[in-house]
Amino acid sequence: MNEFVSLWTGGPVFSQSEHFKLGTDSVLLADFVNTSGRKNGIDLGCGSGILPLLLLEKSPRLFMTGLEINPEAAQCAEKNLAANGFESKSRIIAGDIRRCREYFKSGEFDLIVSNPPYFTEGSGTVSPDKARAAARAEALCTLDDICAAAEYLCKTGGDFCLVHRAERLTDALFSLRQHGLEPKKLRTVSHSTQKEPSLVLISARRGGASGIKILPPLFIRNEDGSESEEILKIYRREAE
After folding, report:
1. Which whole number is the average pLDDT over 139-168?
2. What is the domain-level CATH number for residue 115?
3. Distance from C-alpha of 66 to C-alpha of 51, rounded to nearest angstrom
4. Phi then psi for 206, rounded to 5 degrees?
5. Cβ pair 49, 76 in contact under 8 A
6. Which residue range is the domain that position 142 belongs to?
7. Are 81 and 48 a contacting pair, CB within 8 Å?
8. Which band of pLDDT confidence, cut at 50, 70 and 90, is reported for residue 122?
């Protein structure tokens, strides 16, 4: 595991495991998630623990569980949470999302989050590192597997929030609804105003009524290449 670094000045500290690197998508998802009134959350495929860490930083009343199939990454997640004083507010379980029924009770959580593998198995360049390949593509866990797990784990009225590639929006919406998770909020993410969306942030509700709210798009950079005001706010860099 690498040395700890601050995510922003005065913010939480974080160390990345060898196979799971911190990306903007996880930070944006944590900002997108509404933790209001939520008490018990789980991150499906937590990697080095960035989502549990950011959500606990956002809502100290929350208890977060991380489920991660890679033992080295799970250990890294535990150390990251401990380094920020969240030992009593979190737990990390090394296990397979597809076997979640063996670890948890039905409807145990009112908040579920996931930054899943983006690519279908066999598509694009495949890393020779098996752990990195599994984090990038659906070799060990498909989008449908994750939605099925969320259906089982989420209590009625609870939320499942995820980030995914914009090109797979149809797949995500279809799988969510097939598993009783009604999409309620959607936001696109683009590198700039001149670029088409590359990511989508989705919030779905277990047993929710139909009807989705499309939020204003999020742009990473301004037309001049500088970071957008919203990105500076998310990364706590407004005063720098």
Report:
1. 95
2. 3.40.50.150
3. 9
4. -70, 115
5. yes
6. 5-234
7. no
8. low
Pick from 48, 52, 54: which is nearest to 68 by CA? Answer: 48
Output the pLDDT for position 101. Answer: 97
Kindly state the tokens that stand for 65: 């569980």
Distance, CA of 158 to CA of 111 (rounded, Å): 6
The total domain count for the chain is 1
3-state secondary structure of 151: helix
Q: Please answer whether residues 69 and 95 qualify as being in contact, where contact means their C-beta atoms are separated by less than 8 angstroms.
A: yes
What is the model's pTM? Answer: 0.90
What is the β-pairing status of strands 154-165 and 199-206? antiparallel
Tokens of 157: 């009225």
Residue 76 lies in a domain: yes
What is the average per-residue pLDDT within 99-119? 96
Each residue's pLDDT tens digit, 31-57? 999 999 999 999 999 999 999 999 999
